[in-house]
Amino acid sequence: MSEAHADTATRLLIGGHWSPSSTGQTFLTRDPSTGRPLREVAEASPDDVDAAVAAARAAMDDPAWTSLPRSQVSLLLWRLADLVEANADEIARLETSDNGQPFEVSRNVTIPGTVGHLRYFAGWATKIEGRTAPMSNPDVFHYTRREPVGVCALILPWNFPLMITAWKLAPALACGNTVILKPAEQTPLTAVRLAGLCEEAGFPPGVVNLVTGGPAVGKRLVGHDGVDKVSFTGSTEVGREILRASAGNLKRVTLELGGKTPMIIARDADIDAAVTGTVQGALFNSGQVCAAYSRFYVDKARSDEFVEKVAAQAAALRIGPLISEEHRSSVDGFVRRGVDEGAQLVTGGKPAAGDGYFYEPTVFAGVRDEMSLARDEIFGPVIPVLTYDDPDELVGRANDSDYGLAASVWTRDLVTAHRLAASVKAGAVFVNMLHVPDPAAPWGGFKASGIGREMGAYALDAYTEIKGVFMNLATEE
């Protein structure tokens, strides 16, 4: 973060004003690549959260926002995208130091993805419309309106902090809501910077608010009666807590949660393409991706070749650090458990030497369905390979999971591709490609992987309420 903007990290944005926590408390973030302290950040108090909710509520009643022409809302989002693009190198460096993403990823994936989501929903701001439908009574004219849900708490993860902020913030604002950003305590810095750019773009005070801090801040938002909607990306365990806590005022909830993405490699697959897809799909962002390819079903006739080539590619790959020492210990615990359960460690399997929270890319063979490597979300650079003899057993095995965020199929046969895409229970299925979401396509999970959809036209359902209007057209005699 540049010196011009560094002081905002110790401040909260509430109602258009940057101010320290009301208690003066801060917390320390660390650079995952070195483990060294990075930045002091404001720790919001319960009073600060209440103030942010009040500011967002006041903005929902302010004509400066509610009466703003939709074309102007579109322009504001477009300006915000332009500002991100104009400051791309600085913001990418900030994301790299805060999250540990390699700069190439921050600059060439995170920044374009952020800009793309902002511009996509800038287009939607002028196209949110209702419908008419014929009523059973011909003297009644009926139409619907899409209206903002209201105050939205956007609770953000640490794995892709900037881009996931954009894919929640953009549709929320396009639909006319006000928001409170609550970034993960591990990675708050790009959310702070983006909130400042929202001001610079010209959003009225109180439309975008920011509170930083630990889990207590998020819990306060989730339980707050002044919050109308919560959008959360993170663990399934926390998602369940949010769902329970939202019952107080029946706030709307969108949850994008954990995953254990199956990747099916058919006998006829281009094995070299599947190997490259495996390594990139499993190890991108050091495996810290909800939809990361994380259990690999390989036809037994191709498994030896597959494992040998995957291990060679993985061992040669340089990846970024994990987010924290705590998370690295968790990943290592899964690896140790896999060895204890009888899986064959082919390569990797331990923390990398040197500073920071790095872990070696790890490949296991001989994994069985009941092992933790095949069932639990590891969220790290681990590739567990399972085999199959009978293609007819694949769907049942792939669906034997609590999760259903994404799936992957590698085959040259269209019948196989379409059959598996229809049968696997997942919110997104990627055929012969990496797990790359798009602003125009729906994103979300089945089962314990979440509730609702983000991105595309489907995000409008998450950030609007439908109102029906009935007009009596009958004339009195």
From TrEMBL:
Pfam families: Aldedh (PF00171). PROSITE patterns: ALDEHYDE_DEHYDR_CYS (PS00070). Residues 18-468 form the Aldehyde dehydrogenase domain. Keywords: Oxidoreductase. Residues 19-32 have a biased composition (Polar residues). It comes from the Bacteria. Residues 15-35 are annotated as: Disordered. GO terms for molecular function: oxidoreductase activity, acting on the aldehyde or oxo group of donors, NAD or NADP as acceptor. SUPFAM superfamilies: ALDH-like. InterPro entries: Ald_DH/histidinol_DH, Ald_DH_C, Ald_DH_CS_CYS, Ald_DH_N, Aldehyde_DH_dom. Belongs to the aldehyde dehydrogenase family. This is Betaine-aldehyde dehydrogenase. It comes from Kibdelosporangium phytohabitans. The lineage of its organism: Bacteria, Bacillati, Actinomycetota, Actinomycetes, Pseudonocardiales.
